[in-house]
Design a protein that fits this description.
By secondary structure, the chain is mostly helical. The protein has a single domain, classed as Sodium:dicarboxylate symporter (Proton glutamate symport protein). 75% of the residues lie in helices and 1% in strands. The protein has 20 helices and two strands. Strands 1-2 form a two-stranded antiparallel sheet. α8 packs antiparallel against α9 and α13 runs antiparallel to α14. The longest helix is centred in the N-terminal third of the chain and has 33 residues.
Length: 464
C-alpha cells in the first residue's frame, strides 16, 4: 500500500520533467526564430539539460528519447553523406599524385597528434595522480569482462567491404570509405580514357552530395533539441555519488583534453596554419559543442563538414576527404589521451612502478592502436585494453573507471572532432585551398542556415 500511495507522486515527477523539457524546447525554438546563434542555443540546451536532470533525477531519464531520435537522424545521413562526398572529392582531383599527397599529410597529422596526446595524458596523470587513495575493488574485478582484442587478421578482414550494402546497414564506416575510394578511383581512371562515359556518373554523385548536404542542414537545425535530451539523460543517470570517488580521474581526463586542445591544437593553428587561435576556436565551437554532447564523432561529422567549409573557409574537396577519415581514424582523445591516463591510473592503484621505458611503450602502443581499431565499435575500450595488455598492467583495473566512462567520453570525443577540424585546416592551408582572407574578415556563418558556397559555379546561393 505504501508503494501504491507514492505512485501518483512518482508519475507527477515524470510528467513534470516532460513538461519542463517541452517548455524549454519551445524556448529554444523561439530563440531560433529570434536569430540567436547556433552555438549559443546549443550551450543553453546543455545548461537546460543539466538543470532538468539535476532537478528531477532518475525521473527525467526518459527525456533522453529526444536525444536518441536526434542521434538516429544523424546516423541516417552519415553513410550516404560519407559515400557521396568522398567520391565527389576524389573525382574532382585530376592528378592521383595530389590525392596520394592529401592522404599522406592527413594520416601523418592524425598519428603525430595522437602521439602528442598520449604524452600529455601520461604527464597529466603523473602530476594529478588520479589513482591516489583508491583501493583495488575485488567486486569490480570479479564482474569485469574485458573487451576482446581483434586479431590483426580480423582487423584487415573487417576493413575490406565484402558487402557494401550490408556494411552501410551495420554502420561500418571504414569499409564504406574504402568502397567509395575504389569507385572514385575507377571513375577517375575511366574518365581519363573515355570522359563521356563517366560524366553522367560524376554529375550524379555531385548532385547527390548537394542533396545530402541539404538534408544534413535540416537535421543540424534540430541539434539544440537533441542536446537537451542527451544532457538531461546524462545528468539524470549520474549523480554526485558516482563522481566523488573518481573525481581526480575525471579531472585528469578533462585537464589533459583541455591542454591538448589549447596547447597542441593552438600551436598548430598558430604556427603552421598561421591563424589566430582564438578566432579558430570561436569558429570551431559548434563542432566542439556537438561532439561534447553527442559523444560521437560520426554524429558530429555533418556539423564538422559545415564548420570546416563555411567557417574555416577550407575547400569542400579537402573537407570531404579529411573529415570522414578523421571521424574514423583520428583518435587523439579515445586512442591517445585516455588509454595513457588509464594505464597510469591502474599502475598506481595496483602499486606498480612505471619507468621511462614503460611510458614510451604506452605512447607507441596507443598511437598504433588508435589506427588499428579504426571502425571497431567502442574504440576507446579496445585501445585501452591493447595498451594495458602490452604494458603488462592488470586488465581488471579498467573496471574501476567504467562507471564514469560516459562522462569522460564527452571530453575525449570533443578532442577527436576538433582534431579533425585542425587537420582539415592544416591540409587545406598546405594545399592552397584555405581562404585566409575570408577566414580573417568574413563574419561567422551560422550552421544549417544562411549562405553556402556553390562549388560548381564558385558563387554563393542562399539556403532556405
Amino acid at each position: 500500500m505504501k508503494d501504491q500511495a507514492w505512485l501518483p507522486l512518482q508519475d507527477l515527477s515524470v510528467y513534470g520533467s516532460w513538461g519542463v523539457a517541452l517548455l524549454l524546447t519551445i524556448v529554444l525554438w523561439w530563440l531560433a526564430k529570434k536569430k540567436v546563434g547556433f552555438g549559443t542555443r546549443v550551450l543553453l540546451a546543455m545548461v537546460f539539460g543539466f538543470g532538468i536532470g539535476a532537478l528531477f533525477g532518475k525521473d527525467a531519464v526518459d527525456v533522453g528519447i529526444l536525444g536518441s531520435i536526434y542521434v538516429s537522424l544523424i546516423k541516417m545521413v552519415v553513410m550516404p553523406l560519407v559515400f557521396s562526398t568522398i567520391i565527389t572529392s576524389i573525382t574532382s582531383v585530376k592528378d592521383l599524385n595530389v590525392l596520394k599527397k592529401l592522404g599522406t599529410k592527413t594520416i601523418a597529422i592524425f598519428l603525430i597528434t595522437t602521439a602528442i596526446a598520449a604524452t600529455i595524458g601520461i604527464g597529466v596523470a603523473v602530476v594529478v595522480d588520479p589513482g591516489a587513495g583508491i583501493a583495488h575493488s575485488t567486486e569490480a574485478a570479479k564482474d569485469f569482462e574485458a573487451r576482446e582484442i581483434p586479431t590483426f587478421k580480423q582487423v584487415l578482414l573487417d576493413l575490406v567491404p565484402s558487402n557494401p550494402i550490408n556494411e552501410m546497414a551495420t554502420g561500418k564506416v571504414v569499409p564504406v570509405i574504402l568502397f567509395a575510394f575504389v569507385i572514385a578511383i575507377a571513375i577517375t581512371w575511366e574518365g581519363a580514357r573515355h570522359p563521356e562515359r563517366v560524366e553522367p556518373v560524376r554529375n550524379f554523385f555531385q548532385s547527390f552530395s548537394h542533396i545530402m548536404f541539404r538534408v544534413t542542414k535540416i537535421i543540424i537545425r534540430l541539434t539544440p533539441y537533441g542536446v537537451l535530451g542527451l544532457v538531461t539523460s546524462m545528468a539524470a543517470k549520474y549523480g554526485l555519488e558516482t563522481l566523488k570517488e573518481l573525481a581526480w580521474f575525471i579531472a585528469a581526463v578533462f585537464i589533459a583534453c583541455l591542454i591538448h586542445m589549447v596547447v597542441t591544437y593552438g600551436l598548430l593553428v598558430t604556427f603552421v596554419a598561421r591563424v589566430n587561435p582564438l578566432r579558430f576556436f570561436k569558429k570551431a565551437y559548434p563542432t566542439i559543442a556537438v561532439a561534447f554532447t553527442t559523444r560521437s564523432s560520426y554524429a558530429t561529422l555533418p556539423v564538422n563538414l559545415e564548420v570546416i567549409t563555411k567557417r574555416m573557409k577550407v575547400s569542400e574537396r579537402v573537407a570531404s576527404f579529411v573529415a570522414p577519415l578523421g571521424a574514423t581514424i583520428n583518435m587523439n582523445g579515445c586512442g591517445g589521451l585516455y588509454p595513457a591516463i588509464v594505464a597510469v591510473f591502474v599502475a598506481k592503484v595496483f602499486g606498480i612502478e612505471l619507468g621511462i621505458t614503460d611510458y614510451l611503450l604506452i605512447i607507441a602502443v596507443a598511437t598504433l592502436a588508435s589506427v588499428g581499431v579504426a571502425g571497431v565499435p567502442g574504440p576507446a575500450s579496445i585501445s585501452t585494453t591493447v595498451v594495458l595488455v602490452q604494458a603488462g598492467l592488470p586488465l581488471e583495473g579498467f573496471a574501476l573507471v567504467l562507471g564514469v566512462d560516459a562522462i569522460v567520453d564527452m571530453a575525449r570525443t570533443a578532442v577527436n572532432a576538433t582534431g579533425t577540424t585542425v587537420a582539415s585546416l592544416l591540409v587545406g592551408n598546405s594545399e592552397g585551398e584555405f581562404d585566409r582572407e575570408a577566414f580573417n574578415n568574413e563574419p561567422d556563418e551560422d550552421i544549417g542556415i544562411g549562405q553556402e558556397r556553390d562549388t560548381r559555379g564558385g558563387g554563393v546561393v542562399t539556403a532556405g
